[in-house]
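Render this sequence as a predicted structure.
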Amino acid sequence: MIRNLLTAALLISASIFNTLSAGPPARTSDDKLVLKAWLQVADGVARDVIVEVEVNGVKGWGRANQEGRVECVLPANEVAMIHFRKAGHITKSVRVDTHHAQAGEYKGKTRSIDFGVVLVPSAEQPGLVYAGPVASIAFSAEGGGMTVETDSRLVPAGRQQSIVF
């Protein structure tokens, strides 16, 4: 009996180890989401806007091009937080949930979304920050339709709440 239990435990351990060491499957072009954001700032200079993208605790950053465009590729079936920062402006964040982005008519296709971001000078709203993400983008499980929820509430900087996912 003990010998059978030990054999079963070894087989389960070997199976888990093989699963973990195999790593995730390689991503293909149809399981990603291309995101394009167009920035507008009061002084007309967008190239100094810092864009930070966080997925699964891993952060990357970049800058807008001369025309104020930012483009990034997000993995499917993940949740990303994208922060737009510029000195002297109120930071804006956008939450993008890519689960179901390839559902329905989008299956097997590279999907892309475009949106605009207007950064407001902090002098216009001194001491205030956005309460959380100004937009949350998600996709329906049934057909991949995009839904967008917005929240532009400003709160005093000391009262900003952390959002835990």
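Summary. The domain at 27-159 is CATH 2.60.40.10 (Immunoglobulin-like). The longest helix spans residues 2-22.
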